[in-house]
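Thread: Integral membrane protein, structure

OP (GT): Posting the sequence first so everyone is looking at the same thing. Length is 161 residues per the record. Can we get the structure tokens written out before standup tomorrow? I want them in the notebook alongside the other entries.
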Amino acid sequence: MSPVVVLLLFAGLSEAAGRVLPLVARRPGISRTLVVGLLLAGALIESAVIALWPLTASTLAGLLPTAAPDASDLVWTPSLIAPLLLAGILAFPRLGPLLHLLLLVGVGAGLAGPLAAATGLGWGVAAGCVAVAGVGLAVSVELVRRLVATILTIRVPEPIA
């Protein structure tokens, strides 16, 4: 298994832990099996989304008319993905989202340089492609997360006896 795949899985686990552990703290009676299942499922989904971020950004950059036609896809390197291992830093109720946003902006800025070099675009345009890809993926995941939460909270009416 390559170091990038291992780092992707750990970054996904970190992100999933940042989402699941506050839920566990609010509901102390939740079963361990459910917590482990949520962590594993969340880790796989978050890892896939993180893995898709540079691919989506390079696809968006390739759609621009000024991009180099033979530009290769942007890929994760261990140095680019390592900061995402800290993505689960959401322990502080008020600072957590700000730290998470700053971390993602930093990683996105790190992705913009290689994307600009690969496509021949300016750094600002490449950063815009990375930002649009990141926001699009985040919104998609959040919509699916809310849909699943809504489906899980729908209660079937009990029959009147």
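GT: Both are above now. Quick notes for whoever picks this up: The mean pLDDT is 82. Residues 3-153 form one domain.
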